[in-house]
Write a structure and sequence with these properties.
The complex is a heterodimer of chains A (about 210) and B (about 475). With about 210 residues, chain A is mainly α. Chain A has helices at about 5-30, 50-60, 80-85, 115-120, 125-130, 135, 180-190; strands at about 35, 45, 150-155, 175-180. The longest helix of chain B has about 40 residues, at about 445-485. The chains are: A mainly alpha (about 210), B mainly alpha (about 475).
């Protein structure tokens, strides 16, 4: 081991073990998972994302949502709290991420898990207000305001039907309205599409409850 | 393969017959530039970490401005810590230690010939490229161009620049090993060769498969975890350990304890280091065997740590010498931090514990102790040891050095203890679904508040270090000017 080639081959071989197990194997096996047929409506599972949701996924990445939000429901053999909290009816499996460009698994939960946020909070209006000012709908939330994803503009003629229904301190001054930009609408479309309530062969499903 | 038949006298840096002055002169400029830049990124990273932690007690702080949101500042701080500070300081420490341990000035000869000059220019250019990549990558996250992959947020061109820059320096370090003056390599040199081989492999693979040409997302989880584990355990930690193996016995004036264990420790660390990150996916959307591997690796990782501790912490040392050597104390504290990291890691990878504390501040405490403790403390040790030798004079202000040491330990200790307790607390509350999530958030407030104080202490510590090195280098500049005239 005092000669460079011998040392290098030793290092290479030992290193190869974790590389094969955690890089090559996932890339070749998990990377080749395919969608399964949806018996109920003839489509495929997991469902594909719409164009808006795909654009919203980009915003999710660049705003760093992953710093506070995970997207994985853990196996009940490790902890039942993810399922008990209503974050998902079943644990997440690799196939769930098939349609994502990046797997936003996350490592910290300063905010709630978002695997099934589209099931738990199906209302786009709620999300638009929540992103604009989280405390308005979640008292005591740590989430920052994403007001940069909105425009505050003077009402021209009639009030836009996209304008947020804000009250109290959040409401803009008289004659003005707060409307979401395309980025805000795309992000909400992405959040609403986060629904992993369908069954997969390796992950059968139970009915999902409301978030606690 | 082993050191059995080696005499106890072992050529440690400072003891070789080769002229250390010539070696130091040949690497002086690159190493100082690497350390100098690393420290200014460290200060900025600590400042950002403070802002980030304030945002957890006052979400409205610097609010409403998209580029100052938590989701952008937090990865900026983390990446600056990893690539701006730790990796860059590790390259600096690696270049100096490699040159010293191999007993060869840069470029051969006396290090002042054409080859030496060319290599110095190459390393300095690579360093400029590295810092440019860190700067532009950070600004890109700031401006909303993050990739959204944890620890790999830099856009593709910035990560490509980092990799290229590293290759320019790393190849030289590995080749230097081949031309060393002492035919028998020390374990410190093995760690350095390994580290310099691993970074490009780890960083290149992870970027290729996660950001440059992403594989299907269902496969990304394990690769991501492998990257986080390997970056710490196979790139930064080996450099920190090389520093400890190379410097500690000499600084403390004693021989390594049970030398034969160092070889075994090295190979065990290699074998387990890559699996060590899998505790990030216990119970996650991966095949069950990967969860098991994460648990096993987390616990087994204690074995190489114990072997390394027997080698270096088991040395019969003279406490008077220890208290007189600041670099020695930094290196020792780094090793103690590693032992604690090992224990926390083993605990956190037990399925029941992981189920409760994963995703809480508990995991974050471990990461902080890895980066700021097991990795940064030894790097500080190398810095305090190398700079006076590189400059050829006593350059540190003892008061500032002492303050930096104390403040770093107090700040880090406080931060880690708070995060462990806060994480444990949150974890237990999360296990009870009748306690609402917002309720749990409000329980964490006191912990978050105290974490701000800890982050502030760390910022002051790093500012002290920044002032210390500024005075050291400015003093050198003034001295040169004076002598020149």
């Amino acid at each position: 081991m005092h000669r460079l080639p011998t040392l290098l081959s030793g290092i290479f071989l030992v290193f190869l073990t974790s590389w094969l197990g955690l890089v090559a194997y996932p890339a070749l096996q998990l990377g080749r998972l395919t969608p399964v047929a949806d018996a109920d409506n003839g489509g495929s599972l997991p469902p594909t994302y719409g164009g808006q949701a795909i654009a919203g996924q980009r915003i999710y990445a660049t705003e760093g949502c992953i710093s506070c939000h995970s997207q994985q429901v853990r196996q009940t053999s490790i902890t039942s709290s993810d399922v008990d909290r209503g974050w998902g009816a079943r644990p997440s499996v690799a196939r769930d991420y098939l349609r994502d460009s990046t797997a936003f698994l996350g490592s910290r939960r300063l905010g709630q898990d978002l695997t099934n946020v589209g099931v738990r909070r199906p209302d786009a209006k709620w999300h638009l207000i929540h992103l604009y000012h989280p405390s308005a709908v979640c008292e005591g939330s740590l989430m920052p305001c994403f007001s940069d994803l909105y425009l505050i503009r003077k009402i021209q003629g009639q009030r836009s039907n996209e304008a947020l229904a804000l009250t109290g301190d959040d409401a803009p001054q008289e004659g003005y309205e707060v409307v979401p930009t395309a980025d805000a609408k795309n992000l909400v479309a992405y959040l609403l599409s986060l629904r992993h309530d369908y069954p997969l062969p390796e992950a059968p499903v139970k009915k999902i409850g409301a978030a606690k | 393969m082993s050191h059995h038949n080696l005499p106890h006298h072992h050529p440690a840096p400072g003891h070789e017959p080769v002229d250390n002055k010539a070696i130091d002169a040949s690497v002086r400029l690159p190493v100082i530039i690497l350390f100098g830049n690393a420290i200014h990124w460290l200060v900025i990273a600590c400042l950002l970490s403070l802002v980030v932690s304030i945002k957890l007690i006052a979400p409205g702080f610097l609010g409403g401005i998209s580029f100052l949101n938590y989701g952008r500042l937090a990865p900026m701080a983390r990446d600056l810590m990893l690539y701006g500070w730790a990796s860059q300081a590790a390259i600096g420490a690696g270049v100096w230690l490699m040159a010293r341990l191999c007993g060869r000035p840069l470029g051969g000869g006396d290090g002042q010939g054409m080859g030496g000059m060319l290599l110095r220019t190459l390393i300095i250019s690579a360093t400029v490229l590295w810092n440019l990549a860190v700067l532009l990558g950070t600004l890109a996250i700031f401006a909303g161009y993050s990739t959204g992959v944890e620890w790999l947020e830099y856009p593709n061109w910035a990560s490509a620049m980092l990799l290229l820059s590293f290759l320019l320096i790393g190849i030289w370090a590995v080749l230097l090993f081949d031309r060393r003056s002492n035919p028998r390599a020390e374990v410190a040199q093995w760690y350095l060769v390994a580290a310099f081989c691993w970074f490009p492999w780890v960083y290149g693979t992870a970027n290729l498969l996660l950001t440059w040409k992403p594989v299907q997302a269902s496969a990304q989880g394990p690769i991501q975890s492998w990257y986080c584990g390997s970056l710490l355990a196979l790139w930064l930690l080996p450099v920190a350990l090389a520093s400890a193996y190379a410097l500690l016995p000499r600084l403390l004036g004693c021989h390594m304890n049970r030398r034969h264990l160092s070889t075994l420790g090295f190979w065990m660390l290699l074998l387990l280091g890559g699996w060590n990150g899998m505790d990030r996916l216990i119970g996650g959307p991966v095949p069950a065997w990967m969860t098991s591997a994460g648990v096993v690796a987390g616990v087994l990782f204690l074995i190489p740590i114990i072997m390394i501790s027997i080698n270096l912490l088991g040395m019969p040392r003279n406490e008077v010498i220890v208290s007189a050597s600041l670099p020695g104390r930094f290196l020792l504290m780094g090793l103690y931090a590693l032992v604690i990291v090992g224990v926390i890691g083993a605990l956190a990878s037990l399925p029941d514990v992981s189920g409760a504390v994963r995703f809480t501040a508990f995991t974050e405490a471990k990461t902080q102790l890895w980066i700021l403790g097991a990795i940064s403390l030894p790097l500080f040790g190398v810095l305090y040891e190398s700079l006076p030798q590189l400059l050829g004079r006593d350059c540190w202000c003892p008061v500032l050095s002492g303050r930096h040491y104390i403040l770093t330990l107090v700040g880090l200790g406080m931060l880690v203890v708070l995060m462990l307790l806060g994480g444990l607390f949150t974890g237990l509350a999360l296990a009870d679904p009748t306690v609402s999530f917002l309720n749990i958030t409000s329980y964490s407030y006191p912990f978050h508040l105290m974490e701000c104080v800890a982050q502030l202490l760390l910022l002051i510590a790093m500012l002290t270090l920044g002032a210390n090195i500024t005075f050291a280098l400015a003093g050198d500049y003034l001295l040169n000017k004076h002598n020149g005239k």
